[in-house]
Specification:
Helix content is 24%, strand content 30%. The chain has five helices and twelve strands. Strands 1, 2, 3, 4, 5, 8, 9 and 10 form an eight-stranded mixed beta sheet that branches. α3 packs across α4. The chain is elongated and about 60 Å long. The two termini are 15 Å apart.
Amino acid sequence: MQRIRLRYTKRGRLRFTSHRDFQRAFERALRRAEVPMAYSAGFTPHPKVSYANAAPTGTGSEAEYLEIALTEPRDPERLRILLDESLPTGLDIVEAVEARTSGLADRLTASVWELRLDGVDIEDARRAVDAFDAAETVEVQRLTKNGVRTFDARSAVAGLECVPAHSADHSSQADRPSDRPCAILRLVVRHVTPAVRPDDVLSGLRAVADLAPPVPAAVTRLAQGLFDEETGTVTDPLAPDREAAKARSTADPTATATAPA
């Protein structure tokens, strides 16, 4: 059984797609592309697809991950193209690698987010960021299925800064007004329990500095992966698989992945 790991995006209006909606669309794409899926056992078999740490509904993402299991080998890049063609524009399969290591979910320990705050002056945003960074704890509240929960949003944040507009991710700038103030924040947050989401950090900025954007923030996940404590960066979770494949091809030049997709 071959395992393929995929990175996909949620762009534009498709950021409002729920995780369940994406699951349905992806399983239809598997059927259209005639992917030889492995199925679970039991009375209600279902395709073996493992989803990892999906972004909240309403947020864009450049770094969503899943893994599929196949009964026949396929070339990862050809498979990526077939699946991408079978999905609506905005739900894009942008990378595929053969899984050669274990524990993809274990390598998703942090995310990098971009928060675009239209109508917020950049100096006001910087003052709010400084106040948030200086605080030891920033308690926020979130309504859950078990009621209102209070937790610290500060401890999970590994980095928060204002960035120039020209360095922001292009996908969150599309169709945005340019004749009004706009602050763009870059946020690095560890995946902890309870999970701290970008909207929790925005609630924290409101609590410590009364920063309240006049319109909802445009939120995009730029990356997720293993957090490097020394550099404060988030590493590519598919890099170990690519390195293992490269090492194998170097050791055995005759080894080729696979039959055509």
